[in-house]
Amino acid sequence: MYLIAKSVSKWYPELFLIISVIVYWALTATLVNPVAISLLVLLVAQLRFKNKTFGIVLSFVFMLLSFYMLLAIFSDIVNLDFFYPRGLLMLCFGVLYFGGTAYFAFVLLRKNNNTINERLPIGND
Q: 0.85 cut: is pTM over it?
């Protein structure tokens, strides 16, 4: 069981972002959502091919989308007449959902942007 958890742990960022896109797709209540479909295809392709450059670009896209949505939530909260019941729910759910998405996008960036040199130094290298 430990080996399964350890082998899946390196996929946590991609798996969380896939679940996040599926939740987004379900909350839009449309069957054909081209944004969600394209994000799912890109994430599955990243899981399959593990391209570092593509992973870095994908993580920046998710971070920018998350921060944009956080700003949209704050903008909606400012326009509310009463904060307490609805605004508090929007703030809590939005910060947790989009903050978690931004965190895992950052983890994906760190995973794909390792600066460890994989070759051994030879001589005065």
A: no
